[in-house]
Specification:
Elements (H helix, E strand, L loop, with lengths): L4 H32 L5 H22 L12 H21 L4 H8 L2 H12 L6 H18 L8 H19 L9 H23 L6 H27 L2 H4 L6 H13 L5 H30 L1
Length: 299
């Protein structure tokens, strides 16, 4: 990993762009799978989408001529990340299927604060106060959106919070995977493990017929999911956790827009203010990092 200030700024900028793109893609995926889930059991919905996503990622592995690297998908750390992904995916999607899209995405935006704490505790990554203050501001913005003391706080909200912790742990744990393991192989391990788990549950529960519309929605969702997998892994392996985590907030505007266009759910003024705080916090993280890099080079 690069260590000079300018090199770190460059890597952090690339990581931020990758994370922002990943969040936009995953939000579209969330919308499509939520639509499909209205007529299908949850595990079957996850399994079918996962099967498509696994095929997309496998095609990327072969196109990149990384087929010989596939055994790395079974390595302990790669498999450990995949296990965390299973937990985070199932808890988040089960919650998403029972609550508004914008609310689920907003709760999941608590992950950056947890990621920073995990990075400090387990990766020994130094965190300057401006970085931590920006993440805390983002968390405050998330609370404005969710308002956990209100009547909208349900068991599904609590399940979404569990998913947030698991997803944060998954992303931080990504840093433990050796650089020799290609990111596309890490993506394949995650997609394959989630698919195998969901299809096993579906087989035990019994299959329900799938319409052409539902199949089309899940196939489209899988393409966005596969791309998001790869970009998230690239971001987490390339940039500082405390910087790139703030750019998870970029999913909020997309979630609010799609929630309004598809379901007619429009955030109120307080929620909109919270989303603005979240977005500003993420942008400040990168601006601060660039200024810090420039100042260090000047000295």
């Amino acid at each position: 990993m690069n260590t000079t200030p300018h090199a770190r700024w460059r890597d952090n900028r690339r990581g931020a762009l990758a994370m922002s793109a990943a969040m936009a893609l995953i939000t579209v995926n969330d919308s499509l799978i939520k639509l499909a889930s209205q007529g299908l059991p949850a595990a079957e919905t996850i399994g079918i989408r996962g099967a498509f996503a696994t095929l997309w990622v496998l095609a990327a592995v072969l196109a990149a001529r990384q087929g010989r690297q596939l055994p790395h998908a079974l390595e302990r750390r790669t498999a450990g990340r995949a296990a965390l992904d299973v937990g985070g995916t199932f808890t988040y999607l089960y919650a998403l299927f029972h609550m508004p899209l914008a609310d689920a995405v907003a709760i999941n935006m608590g992950a950056p604060l947890i990621m920073v704490l995990f990075a400090v505790l387990f990766l020994r990554e130094p965190v300057r106060w401006p970085r931590l203050a920006a993440v805390l501001a983002g968390f405050a913005g998330m609370l404005l959106v969710v308002r956990p003391g209100g009547g909208a706080f349900t068991w599904w909200t609590a399940l979404c919070l569990v998913a947030t912790v698991l997803n944060a742990a998954r992303d931080v744990y990504t840093r433990q995977i050796p650089p020799r393991v290609p990111s596309v192989i890490v993506s394949f391990a995650a997609a394959g493990t989630i698919t195998a788990t969901a299809l096993s549950v579906t087989t035990a529960q019994g299959w329900q017929p799938v319409s052409a519309t539902e199949l089309t929605l899940l196939a489209a969702a899988s393409a966005f999911l596969a791309a998001s997998y790869f970009l998230t892994i690239v971001a987490m392996r390339l940039a500082d956790v405390s910087v790139v985590s703030g750019f998870r907030y970029s999913a909020l505007p997309a979630a609010a827009l799609l929630g309004w266009l598809i379901w007619g759910y429009l955030p109120d003024a307080i929620s909109a203010a919270g989303m603005a705080v979240l977005a500003a916090a993420g942008l400040y993280l990168l601006r601060h990092e660039r200024a810090h890099a420039g100042g260090a080079e000047a000295t």
